[in-house]
Amino acid sequence: MNALLFLGLGLLASLRATTSLQPQIPSVASFTGSNVPGFLLSTSTQIIVDSDFQDSGSPSLITYAQTFRSDLLFLAGLASIPEVRIGSLEDSDASSIIFLTLGATNHTYFSGVATEEGYDFVINSRSYIIKGSGAIGVWWGTRTLLQQLALSPTSDGTIAAGSGSDTPGWEVRGFMLDAARHWFEPSFLADLCIYASFFKLQTFHIHASDNIWDQNFISGPDWRKLYSAFRFQPAAGSPIAGLIQLRNETWSKDDFTALQTTCSHHGVTIVPEVDTPGHSLAISKWKPELAIPNAPDNLNLSHPDTIPTIKAIWDEILPWFTSAEVSIGADEYDPSLANDYISFVNEMSEYISQRGKSIRIWGTNEPSTTASINTSVTVQHWDFPGDSIPVQLMNRGYRVINSEQQFLYLDGKTSDEGQFPLELVQSLMWSGAPGGGGWAPNIFSPDDSSNNTSPDNPLLRGSIMALWNDWGNNATTPLEIYYQLSRSLAVFAEKVWAGSGVRDTALSQEQFNSIYPTLNVAAPGQNLNRAVPSQPNNIIFQYPTVSEPRISAFDSVGPPYTLTFTIKPSNVTEINVPLSDGTSILVPHDGGVIFAGNDSKLHVQSLSFEDPTTQIRYPLSYTLPTDTFTTVEMHATRTYTYAVIEGSVYWWMTDLDIWGEYMKPANMSFAAPSHFIRGDDFFGELHNVSLVLGS
């Protein structure tokens, strides 16, 4: 076993016969312990998929089993376990078996609606049997097994014997990421899917088109200069090809298909969003005639080409998506155009329905006395009471998803005068509801119970928390986004699975706080923490002199860390660059790259950190002299990075444009650029290089 995974709680080794499951995230609905030896994973443990159900589900049970085996190897630290086998429990003579099958019954959400997400499990010394009501139920059962393995109180990782049953409270349990105002590579989004799946979240809502808001640009002649993006890359020759201005910041169909497959193989469905008719500057830049005058981020729905253009966009990309639902956004549109808005939503609902999918919209006030949105449209509530009153919507027959901003909104690192927190507020999540019972998807107001509903309301579909990126690419690095999400996703996962005050097995805040650090480290299939194996004296590398480029074993190292080096840059300001015809030209030289990794680069010029994802540089207010040696000692945590140089402290910062009204400085955090030491384009001297864990 990987010893790191069993030290998080500081628990002592005990006898193999344990009688209760460890508290986990999310909590298990019920478990009855048995006072006999528990299940012990070993290199001979055989995963068997019931041959009667191997192809059941989409993804299939066998597909989930293959992913589970990879996760098991990742988490347990075993050199190997046998390949997944198809068969039955009875025909196996293995001494240690994990058996995956279907046939569990009577699993329902709190609403009483039957679900395939439930599972039963039976554990003894020879076998761990997971029986799902569907293949996805078995998948969630494997997450329970993995968490129990990580949290086992015994030194060998024994899991308590007994039997249990578990079902989520709601069908929609997910998170939204604004990927329109901040560019993210598909690999990062895939890792977020995998991480969220460990905590049994099953929806990844990707906000894929939008623009930065700046009134000075929006209402002025330079509105085309404002950052906007549409992230789906049309095929060559597509009629919507003109929509793309930032081709290097788009996902091809192959990119998105691979991302979607990774997520689905971990039980997570991607729900894509193309936001119209508001937040549509990317479309207006392509077709200015469709914009409302002096409000180009809003499309003129009365223009004869507007709705056909929006339909053409969906015609191009809708076949990409495997989800049964898509979001058309439809928020923050001019309320004086309510009838046009309602007609648009209903027309798009019908249009997309004819193509086999249904739609969601953000809750938006549409003050019309003559028209209403069709109740087949799911409303994702976000602003109470300004834009929608969810209990009233449900009373009128609408299905609702809770994304209430008072509880569930984050914004990339910082926001307008602290409007949104860095992570979900723990006091609100655990006790911030009428009566002090804590938040759950049926809670929309922290102080007025009349605006909340019951957990079993059949029109309450569940909840999606949201992380926006109002301040754009330069506000955060992708890893900073993960730092905001990591703990928030876990506490949110408990609440959308178990609710508050519904099950007596639900976690307390104290239990959550005690186990989350261990489970965060244990989450398999990704390494968003950029953790590295234990090193002697926490030294990642140490070199007295680096006279030529070196490659270390570590692509990137997450904070906290200390990176120290002594440097004397060259005074070269121009270099020869060879051309294909055999000649060369002189080009300016900025000093080169000192260190580089998957998540960051450190340049000589202004000691700038670069985020390779966005290619944005963040300079330090310091210039390295070229005529002497300078020692730089860098320190990083998840919230800041700074350098100590000749006794003075310098911080890596960014400037955020808050609504075009004022600028706001913010700290930047960077993973250590640990893979390449001394770039090919660095010509100076580099000595006393060391990277040590801890700040």
TrEMBL record:
The active site is at E332 (proton donor). Pfam families: Glyco_hydro_20, Glyco_hydro_20b. GO terms for biological process: carbohydrate metabolic process. It comes from the Eukaryota. The keyword Lipid metabolism does not apply. Residues 172-498 form the Glycoside hydrolase family 20 catalytic domain. Residues 1-20 form the signal peptide. Its EC number is 3.2.1.52. It catalyses: Hydrolysis of terminal non-reducing N-acetyl-D-hexosamine residues in N-acetyl-beta-D-hexosaminides. Keywords: Glycosidase, Hydrolase, Signal. Coiled coil: none annotated. GO terms for molecular function: beta-N-acetylhexosaminidase activity. It is an enzyme of class 3 (hydrolase). Residues 25-161 form the Beta-hexosaminidase bacterial type N-terminal domain. PANTHER family: BETA-N-ACETYLHEXOSAMINIDASE, PUTATIVE (AFU_ORTHOLOGUE AFUA_2G00640)-RELATED. Belongs to the glycosyl hydrolase 20 family. This is beta-N-acetylhexosaminidase. It comes from Mycena metata.
